C-alpha cells in the first residue's frame, strides 16, 4: 500500500485486521504509530533513530589517528543519514587537541559528488526538508558562537559603565549629606550678617570639597575595585552584568543572527536558527550552504564542530546529515556520563586498546549495541535499542 503516514499509515496501525506493525522513521511518527496501534493491542516494532557516541581513549597510542579518521568516515557514511551514525565523538582530554586536528584534516578531505560518479565520496541529502534541517542546526551553532563573543564584549564594557553610574549616585548622595551636616554645625544659622554667611559658606565649601572628594574617591575606588572589577567574579557585578546582557545581547544577537542566517543560511529554517543558544562551538570544516560547484540539489558540506557543549543541539538532536560534534571528557566515568546523556539508545562505539575497559563500557553504556575498535557485529546479531521511548 502506498500513501502518507497520516492517512494510510494511521489506517494500517489502527486496523484490527493488522496483527503487527513495523515502522522505521522519526520519533514523532513512531509515537503516533504506537498510539494508533494501542486500541487493537497489536505488536509494534520501531526503529526510530539514534545519537551514537564514539568514545576515543588516550590508551590507543599510535592508533589514535586511525580511530579518529575511521570515526569521521563512519559519521559521514551515507551522507550521515544512518540511525547508527557515530555523530558524537567523545575524546579523552589528554589527546583532545591532537584528535581535533586529525578530524579537521579528515573532514577537509571528505569529498562530495554525484551519486552516478564512481569513487569514494558522499552524495546529497534525501529531501529539501532534511537539507533545511541540517542547515538550520549548523547555522544555530555559528550564530550562537558569534553572539557569545558579542555578549562577552558588551558585558565587560557595561561593567565599567555600571561602576561609574553607581558611583555617581552614591557619591552625590553621601557628599550632599555630609556637606549639609558640616555646614549646619559650623555656620551658625542665627548669624544673619552677610559677611559671616559668606565666610561660613567659603569655609563650608572648602571643607566639603576636601572631605567629599576624599570620601567619594575612596568609595568609588572601593566599589569599582571590589564589586565591578571584571576580574573579580563578584555576585553583584555578575548579576548586574547578566541582567543588562540579557536585555541588550538578546536584541543585538537576534538582529545579527537574522542578518547572518538570511544571507548565509536557508531562510526556511529561521525557527531552528532562532532557537540557538550560546553554544560556543568551533567550526573545523564545512559550514552552511552547498559545497562549491553544487548550485542545485540537496548537497551539504561535510561539517565538523569541536568544543561542543553537551547541551548543544548538535549534541542532543539526531541531525541525519554529515555533521560531527566533538566533545572532551576527563575520565572513563565522565565519558559514560556524556555518552548516556541522550534519550536515544541504539548504538555506541568504543576505541581503546584495553580489553577490560571495552568490556566495562559495553555494560555501562545505555545502548542496544556497542561496537569496539571498528569491529561491527555479524549479520545475524540482534538489532535493537535499550531506551523504551525509542524502542528499535
Folded structure, characterized:
With 392 residues, the chain is of the alpha/beta class. It has three domains: 42 residues, no CATH class; 206 residues, Aldehyde Dehydrogenase, Chain A, domain 2 (3-Layer(aba) Sandwich); 100 residues, no CATH class. 51% of the residues lie in helices and 11% in strands. It contains eleven helices and nine strands. The strands form two sheets. A seven-stranded mixed beta sheet has the order 5-6-7-4-3-8-9, sandwiched between helices. Strand 1, helix 2 and strand 2 form a beta-alpha-beta unit.
SSE topology:
Blueprint (H helix, E strand, L loop, with lengths): L4 H10 L5 E5 L2 H12 L4 E5 L5 E4 L7 H13 L11 E5 L3 H14 L18 H59 L7 H33 L8 H29 L6 H5 L7 E4 L17 E4 L6 H4 L6 E7 L2 H9 L6 E5 L3 H10 L4 E4 L20
Parallel strand pairs: 1-2, 3-4, 3-8, 4-7, 6-7, 8-9
Antiparallel strand pairs: 5-6
Helix pairs in contact: 1-2, 3-4, 5-6, 5-7
Q: Roughly what is the average pLDDT, rounded to an integer?
A: 77
Q: What is Rg?
A: 31 Å
The CATH superfamily name of the largest domain is Aldehyde Dehydrogenase, Chain A, domain 2
Give the total of domains: 3
Which quaternary structure do these chains form? single chain
By CATH, the topology of the largest domain is Aldehyde Dehydrogenase, Chain A, domain 2
Residue runs with pLDDT of under 50 for 5 or more positions:
264-278, 388-392
Span between termini: 23 Å
Question: How many helices?
Answer: 11
Amino acid at each position: 500500500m502506498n500513501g502518507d503516514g497520516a492517512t494510510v499509515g494511521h489506517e494500517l496501525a489502527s486496523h484490527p485486521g493488522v496483527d503487527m506493525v513495523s515502522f522505521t522513521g522519526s520519533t514523532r511518527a513512531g509515537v503516533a504509530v504506537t498510539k494508533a496501534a494501542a486500541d487493537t493491542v497489536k505488536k509494534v516494532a520501531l526503529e526510530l533513530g539514534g545519537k551514537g557516541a564514539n568514545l576515543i581513549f588516550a590508551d590507543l597510542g599510535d592508533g589514535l589517528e586511525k580511530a579518529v579518521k575511521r570515526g569521521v568516515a563512519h559519521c559521514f557514511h551515507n551522507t550521515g543519514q544512518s540511525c547508527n551514525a557515530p555523530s558524537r565523538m567523545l575524546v579523552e582530554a589528554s589527546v583532545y587537541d591532537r584528535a581535533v586536528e586529525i578530524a579537521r584534516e579528515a573532514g577537509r578531505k571528505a569529498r562530495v559528488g554525484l551519486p552516478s560518479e564512481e569513487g569514494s565520496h558522499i552524495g546529497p541529502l534525501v529531501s529539501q526538508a532534511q537539507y533545511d534541517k541540517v542547515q538550520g542546526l549548523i547555522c544555530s551553532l555559528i550564530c550562537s558562537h558569534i553572539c557569545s563573543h558579542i555578549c562577552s564584549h558588551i558585558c565587560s564594557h557595561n561593567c565599567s559603565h555600571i561602576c561609574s553610574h553607581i558611583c555617581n549616585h552614591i557619591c552625590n548622595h553621601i557628599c550632599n549629606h555630609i556637606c549639609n551636616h558640616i555646614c549646619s554645625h559650623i555656620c551658625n544659622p542665627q548669624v544673619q550678617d552677610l559677611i559671616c554667611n559668606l565666610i561660613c559658606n567659603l569655609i563650608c565649601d572648602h571643607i566639603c570639597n576636601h572631605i567629599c572628594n576624599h570620601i567619594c574617591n575612596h568609595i568609588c575606588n572601593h566599589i569599582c575595585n571590589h564589586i565591578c572589577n571584571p576580574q573579580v567574579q563578584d555576585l553583584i557585578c555578575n548579576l548586574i552584568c547578566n541582567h543588562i546582557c540579557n536585555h541588550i545581547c538578546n536584541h543585538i544577537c537576534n538582529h545579527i543572527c537574522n542578518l547572518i542566517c538570511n544571507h548565509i543560511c536557508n531562510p526556511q529554517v529561521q525557527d531552528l536558527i532562532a532557537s540557538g543558544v550560546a553554544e560556543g562551538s568551533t567550526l573545523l570544516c564545512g559550514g552552511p550552504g552547498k559545497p562549491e560547484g553544487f548550485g542545485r540539489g540537496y548537497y551539504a558540506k561535510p561539517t565538523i564542530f569541536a568544543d561542543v557543549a553537551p547541551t548543544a543541539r548538535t549534541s542532543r538532536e539526531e541531525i541525519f546529515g554529515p555533521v560531527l560534534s566533538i566533545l572532551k571528557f576527563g575520565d572513563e566515568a565522565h565519558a559514560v556520563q556524556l555518552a548516556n546523556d541522550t534519550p536515544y539508545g541504539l548504538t555506541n562505539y568504543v576505541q581503546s586498546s584495553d580489553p577490560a575497559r571495552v568490556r566495562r563500557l559495553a555494560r555501562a553504556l545505555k545502548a542496544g549495541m556497542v561496537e569496539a575498535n571498528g569491529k561491527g557485529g555479524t549479520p545475524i546479531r540482534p538489532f535493537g535499542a535499550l531506551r523504551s521511548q525509542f524502542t528499535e
